[in-house]
Amino acid sequence: MVKNEDYDPPSGTWTRCDQLRTVANLAGRIRQVLAGVDEALATFAVRDELDHLERHIRAAARLLVVAGSGGGQLDGGFADQLQPLDPDAAPPDASTLAARIAGFAERLPGLIDQAGGATVSFRADPMGTVDAGQLLEMVVAEGEWSLHRLGRLRATAADGPGPGSAGVVESIHVSDGGVPKLPIPSAAIVHSGVVGDRQATRTHHGRPWQAVSLWSADVIDDMASEGHPIGPGKAGENLTLRGLDWKSLRPGVQLGFGGALIELTAWAEPCQQIADLFVDGCSWWIDHDRYPGRARIYGRVIRPGPLEPGDPVVIEPNLE
What we know:
Radius of gyration: 21 Å
CATH superfamily of the largest domain: PK beta-barrel domain-like
CATH class of the largest domain: Mainly Beta
CATH architecture of the largest domain: Beta Barrel
CATH topology of the largest domain: M1 Pyruvate Kinase, Domain 3
Number of strands: 14
Strand content: 15-25%
Helix content: 25-40%
Strand order of the largest sheet: 4-9-8-12-11-10-14
Shape: globular
C-alpha cells in the first residue's frame, strides 16, 4: 500500500471510476516513466520495483478469477499469492515486466465485473476476506506507489534535470469545466488541485495524479510564433510556467513552489476539445510522443500551499 503520508491523498479522493481509469492508464504511465532507459543499463531497483508491482497485480487477477467463480476459501495467506512465477529465477528484464503488467491491467476491469460481490478468504491470514473493491484499491495503491518510486529513480538519475534550476509562475488558471481556463490573481493548491477549478467530465481527468495540469509559457510563445492561435490557459493548463527547460522534465520530477510541492506524473494527451487552437485543427502538435518537449504535463500535489503569479518554481528543491 502507499506508505508516505505526504504522497497519499486524503481518503475519499478516489472514486471507483478514478480507480478503474487509473488501472487502464498504468501501462502508458510506466512507458512514459521508463522512456529513454537503456534495457542493458536498467538498474536492479527499476526491475525490482516492476517485479513488485507485477506480483501484486497478478495476485489480484488470480483472486478475482476465484471470486468470479463464486468465491471461496484458500489455504495459506495473501502473501502466498505474491510468490514469483519461478522462485529460482532472477526478475525478468524491465520491458518484459512492463508488458506483463499491461496485460494484467487490461484484464482487471472485466474480472472485477465478473466477481461482482463475491469474496475470497484465507485460512491463514489475519486480513481474512477480500472482495473485488478491495483488490482494485490494492492494485491502484501499489501502482501509484510503484510509479512514484520509478519516477523518483528516473528523475534523480544522472540524465535527469539539474536540481535547483529555477523558473517563475507566469499565470494560474481555473474554470468551472472545460476550456479555456481563465486567469486568477492567486490560488490555493490542495491535494485535489487548484481550489476553484473543476473538470467538465471525470472520464479522462481529475484523478489525484492529475490534480494539476502544467505547461510552459516558452512553448506557448514558440507555438504562437508558428501561427497557432494558442495562449495561456486556452489548452486547459492550471499553471503556466516560464524559464524551465521543458524538454528536461519527466514524470517523477518534483517542482517546488514556495510552500507547495508538486510531483510530475504523466504527459497529458491532447484531445479534440482544443483542436481549434492549432492551424490545421490537429491537437497532436502537443502530443509528447510526436513532439517531445511540447506537451502539457500532469502533477500530483505532495504538499499543499498558496501560489501567485511571479512566485518562483524550482526543479528538485530538496536535492539542491
